[in-house]
Amino acid sequence: MSFARSLARNRAEAEDTCQDMILQMLRHLDRIEEISNLESLAFTILYWKCLDQLRRRRRFLNFLPQRG
After folding, report:
1. What is the DSSP letter of 20?
2. Rounded CA gap, 5 and 13, in Å?
3. In this predicted model, what pLDDT tens digit does every residue of 38-52 receive, in sequence order?
């Protein structure tokens, strides 16, 4: 959670990405059993999910009218 929060800088988004990571790992549990380092896999998935979240936020902010 702290890793996700450091990337997202928002507690709610960090919680969402952690939940998404857990769901993805559970959905693909049959493939994960072959991987020896689950912690490394979890951090990798979490990292990419956080980047996706940041991209979505940036795209959303581009639709808002610019102040100035």
Report:
1. H
2. 8
3. 888 889 999 999 888
| Helix (H/G/I), strand (E/B), else coil: 29 | helix
Q: Which residues constitute the domain of residue 23?
A: 2-63
Nearest to 45 by CA among 16, 10, 18, 12: 18
What percentage of residues in the chain have a pLDDT greater than 90? Answer: 15
More confident residue, 67 or 11: 11
| Residue 10 falls inside a structural domain | yes
Q: What is the pLDDT of residue 60?
A: 67
The answer to the question of residue 21 being in a domain is yes
Asked if 41 and 48 touch (Cβ cutoff 8 Å), the reply is no
